[in-house]
Amino acid sequence: MRQRITYFRPHDADWDPNQLAITDTSVHGPALPALKEHKITLTLPELPSELAGLLRDLEQLHLRWATPASYDTLEPFSSRISPGLHVSYTPAKEDHDPRNREKLCTALQAFGRLDCSSPDVFVNFSDGRQPGSPALFFYNELEKLDGFAKRLGPVVCSGPSATECRKQLHELKDAVSLDMSYDSTSEAVKIQALWPLQKREISVPASPKGRTEVGILGRDAPPGMEPHEIGVSGVLTVIGEQKEPSPALFAFASRHRAASGSFTSRFQQPTGLHPTLQLRLSKTAAPLDEDAECAPYAYLTLPKVIFADRYQLADELFLASKNLTAAKYVSEPVDLEAPAYTTKPWGSNVLLQLAPPKDGAEAEEWTAEVPLHLRYLKPTPTGKEEAGIPYPAVFWACEGDKDTAYTVSPFDRATLGYDGLFEPGTTFWHVSPKPEAGGRLINNISVPVVTEGASQWVGIGTAVAVVLGFAWVLLTLVGGYAKSGHGAVAAKKEDEDKKEK
User: Domain locations in the chain?
Assistant: First the structure.
């Protein structure tokens, strides 16, 4: 097992490396403003046998979680996803055993009660994506990691380090993101947790099971740094191997960068059954110079209660009226008629290219509108149901060199869902989300539904309407037949036959 704990401070934060206390069992230092990342790399033999067996049946597995609470961050930790739990995976080739999917769903219950047992819940995630992207995707709302840490403790924490292990798991309650990745090529599991920018003490104990590296870093500009790179400097140390911190100064290509400005997300009022999501951005200019090909995008993660109509989003004139350029991707299947309680997939993903003002001027802000549609929900006593729609990820995607070695970055983050829809080498400049109220990156919407008391009359009313409609049609036909004279002609012909006889 290898551990790496990084404290990343703002460039204007003062601190003295000589204040670090480094021993054979720990690293301690004074409090300083910093965000914290904890990364753990494990091999399959180091995992519980049941979990290792599950992973051996998969080609790749990626779990991504983000908090619904607003938080501050720094480059190179700029990447964003919608709040909630995102699960993507690819089964082993030619593996069609449903028991493996059931094992995965059972393992995911560590995060809470997730409805993932049906194969139809997962969305086919491969169409239109780069080779090597996961094949299946699942999303579920998840507020916090408290329950996950509590359930995981008895499984992974044992032996002399059990107390420290449980303490580290308990700290997940304050984390803002968590990544867990596995691929069959390396047969390694990588776990990354991130804590937000705030004042915190430097305190890292040694791991009795492996190597523990500690870094206190900040932004810098090493000589010869390329425009697409990020430079950092600071000190590094390995607990138990070094008595003094080693100075560090290096640069690396970063897949995710921070764009200037921010954005808000809200539903226009009144919402009705066809709400409009309004995205308001504070900047209009691209993050790079005019020679670079950059465009703004919004990647939406929509639970099954709400969806986007792909046919409506194919109308270019309609899109232009909403400051949208195109719907680059809509996951499938999306049933446009089914109510939420009969819809099997968890929901859908939509990638929209936004249309900023064409004059290129630095406006105060600009707005894009996304037309959406609510599904019918089960009746409730109040006639209303509350639903939470997570903020989208909003970013500028800029073309770059396909051969850029992002994997050299010690803080690289990939397989976030939207990155597989772009060419290799694309740089994502993330616009920071700004909550409308309450510090939460969730849009709450009130969905009108039938009240429980009235729902029993719906069937009766429908039957009565059908009967009355059928009677009306029948009477109309009879009346029309009589008025046309067919009855009089028949009677006259009968009289003439009698006279001839």
Answer: 2-253, 257-450, 460-500
